[in-house]
Design brief:
The chain is an alpha+beta fold and about 210 residues long. The chain has helices at about 1-15, 15-30, 120-135; strands at about 35-45, 45-60, 60-70, 75-80, 85-90, 100, 140-145, 150-155, 170-175, 180-185, 190-200. A hairpin with a 4-residue loop joins strand 4 (about 75-80) and strand 5 (about 85-90). Helix 2 packs across helix 3 (about 120-135).
Length: about 210
């Protein structure tokens, strides 16, 4: 009975991290399109950005977002991977003015350096896969159950912060179906990123007009 109890406890506190990474990769490979809404908090130095976004995504890297809440509410940006450009426009009275910009133009980059195509759950998958390719240490740190979602939290130790927005560590929250639910980024122990995806739909039909801005 004692050993049975110990085995049960261990089974609840450990996972095969290599198998988990394979499952995440397989899930990403199964996704062709997705839409999502999420809230995000970013901090760099004494600057803070808080916003909510709606994001359309289609492989290979077509990305369109709209600011639902925040400083630039109603602004939109769309990344075209074929031309490697971003088309963007502000909300309000000048909504009709559309600019063509480079992906790293400061007008369409967050304070931590996130570009238009980093937005949404697609950006989370792509960064997690990059960490896998880099061979960074990944550690299972527990389960979560929140707002109807259940899943696992994976902590990544980042050896080259300058390549990844200055993060020394990130914690990825994946649902039981291996979909990103939340993301936390840390710089020298301080939380400087917190994104929560409160709505997502995978492999949905997206009208072609969405990719015209």
């Amino acid at each position: 009975m004692f050993f049975t109890t110990i085995f049960f406890i261990l089974s609840q506190t450990q996972i095969d991290i290599d198998e988990f990474k394979i499952k995440v990769k397989e899930k990403w490979e199964s996704i062709k399109t997705c839409i999502c809404e999420y809230n995000t908090f970013q901090k760099k130095g004494d600057k803070i950005e808080e916003a909510s976004y709606f994001v359309y995504f289609k492989k290979p890297l077509w990305t369109r977002l709209k600011v639902l809440k925040g400083k630039n509410k109603d602004s939109e940006a769309m990344y075209n991977p074929e031309k490697n450009i971003v088309r963007g426009r502000k909300g309000g009275l000048i909504k009709g003015i559309v600019l063509t910009l480079k992906p790293d133009d400061g007008r369409v980059v967050s304070i931590r350096g996130f570009k238009t195509y980093d937005a949404g759950i697609s950006g989370v998958y792509l960064r997690f896969l990059k960490y896998m390719d880099e061979g960074y240490e990944m550690e299972y740190i527990g389960n979560f159950e929140e707002k109807g979602f259940k899943g696992k939290k994976i902590k990544v130790k980042i050896l080259n912060p300058e390549k990844f927005y200055g993060f020394n560590e990130e914690i990825f929250w994946f649902t039981e179906d291996y979909v990103p639910y939340r993301l936390e980024g840390f710089e020298k122990g301080e939380k400087v990123l917190d994104s929560q995806f409160y709505m997502f739909k995978l492999n949905v039909e997206i009208e072609e007009e969405i990719w015209q801005l």
